[in-house]
Design brief:
Elements lengths: L9 E2 L17 E2 L20 E6 L5 E4 H5 L4 E8 L4 E12 H8 L7 E6 L4 E5 H4 L5 E6 L2 E2 L9 E3 L12 E7 L30
Parallel strand pairs: 1-5, 2-6, 3-12
Antiparallel strand pairs: 3-4, 5-6, 6-9, 7-8, 7-12, 9-10, 9-11
Length: about 210
């Protein structure tokens, strides 16, 4: 079971007001289910050898066991989850380590402008560093009071309530701080680099 150290989750379900007038973005439908979508099968991993790493344009590269990662200061937040395929699950309760906490521990270089997330299955996705430090961007390891299920990205996934969910890598094991941009798996295949649900930025035509 997860323990965020707080009895009352922080409610971020009103973050949509920064981007639009409606909580449900255009073209989305609300669902009570939590569908499982991935580029492939759920990867296997060894709890004894798993390491969460942060590297690149940082002062102190990190390499943390799962236990060490879960010992970092954590929060529980209620936030909305928007899939690019058109469904949204509202009021998800995630527990995890804020992105800003990891960035602070690593000591991000002033020249860093982008973040490339790396997953156990080879998946990658990019976000500007400024987008990662916004409220709600978590390295989540808990969901609805229990451990995050493997098919939803356990042991650790990124959640990005202000973006379509493909920006939140499942099974994340590494975060690379970069001075330049490198597009991720779906972005290279035509998905939007900006992924703002309230602007319906699902697909993009430009390429690196």
């Amino acid at each position: 079971m997860t323990d965020s150290g707080t009895d009352v989750p922080e409610d971020l379900t009103d973050r949509y007001r920064e981007y639009g007038d409606e909580r449900l973005p255009p073209g989305q439908r609300e669902t009570d289910e939590f569908p499982v979508l991935s580029k492939g099968s759920t990867p296997s991993w060894d709890p004894e050898s798993f390491a969460f790493e942060a590297w690149g344009a940082v002062d102190e590269p990190l390499s943390l066991s799962l236990g060490e990662f879960r010992d970092l200061p954590a929060v529980t937040q209620r936030q909305d989850f928007h899939c690019v395929t058109g469904w949204s699950k509202l009021g998800c309760e995630f527990t995890g380590v804020p992105f800003a906490t990891v960035a602070e521990r690593a000591g991000v270089d002033e020249a860093a402008e982008h973040v490339l997330f790396h997953a156990l299955d080879g998946y990658t996705t990019d976000l500007p560093l400024s987008e990662c430090t916004e409220p709600g961007v978590l390295f989540a390891y808990g969901y609805d009071g229990d451990d995050l299920p493997a098919d939803h990205g356990g042991p650790i996934r990124v959640v990005t309530p202000h973006k379509y969910a493909y920006k939140g890598a499942k099974w994340v094991a590494g975060v690379e701080f970069r001075t330049d941009r490198e597009r991720g798996y779906w972005e290279k295949r035509g998905y939007s680099d900006t992924a703002n649900p309230w602007n319906e930025e699902r697909y993009g035509s430009d390429r690196l």
